[in-house]
Amino acid sequence: MTESPSPPPDTELMEREQREWHREHVAWMKDITVWQREQQLAEALLYQLEHALPDHRLRMLEHSDDIAAHEKRLREHEKLLSERMPGRLQGGGGTDDLYATHRQQAEYHARERTQHDAFRAQHQTAMAEFRRITKLIQQIDQET
Q1: CA 16 to chain centre
Q2: What distance in Å separates the CA atoms of residue 119 and residue 108, rounded to the nearest whole number?
Q3: Is 47 helix (H, G, I), strand (E, B) or coil?
Q4: pTM
Q5: Which of 3, 28, 76, 101 is deepest in the core (most CB within 10 A)?
Q6: Number of domains in the chain
Q7: Which of 28, 70, 34 is nearest to 42 (CA)?
């Protein structure tokens, strides 16, 4: 038995495949270029984040100190109120000063509340992003 000759190669098909492979290769290289830029950006952002965290810790400590100082002022004001409220034996007179001081304490407290609420919102947003990014990184690690 004689073998039948194999059909001639389809050169047009091979050329089309070659062109398609080349276009695909060019697209892949564009992807790599974009990914490299994104990686560089991520590294730069990570550098900024690494330096921002100690600043955030410092702001948190300062905020904590502000709250402690405010609490001290409140205790001093409370003591003054108990000593100078009308009808108390230790006090008497000077109620205008007492009310003015109390209004000032109310302003301090409102300012502290506003600052604390803003700090809380910023902190919660940042921590939610950290958790989201951490989860994403863990997923990527599990896939590799």
Answers
A1: 50
A2: 16
A3: helix
A4: 0.64
A5: 101
A6: 1
A7: 34
Domain for residue 61, yes or no?
yes
Q: pLDDT tens for residues 8-60?
A: 889 999 999 999 999 999 999 999 999 999 999 989 998 998 998 899 999 99
**132 within a domain of the structure (yes/no):** yes
Q: Which two tokens stand for residue 45?
A: 């952002």
Cα separation, 99 vs 97, whole angstroms:
5
Tokens of 6: 């194999």
Range of the domain at 119: 54-144
Which residues contact residue 77 at a Cβ distance below 8 angstroms, ignoring those fewer than 6 apart? Answer: 101, 102, 105
Encoded tokens for 109: 């407290």
Backbone angles phi, psi at 140, to 5 degrees: -65, -45
Residue with tokens 């997923």: 139
The residue length of the chain stands at 144
Whether residue 111 lies inside any domain: the answer is: yes
End-to-end CA gap in the chain: 54
Confirm whether 109 is domain-assigned: yes
Rounded CA Rg of the chain: 35
Distance of CA 53 to the CA centre of its chain: 10
Number of H helices, E strands in the chain: 2, 0
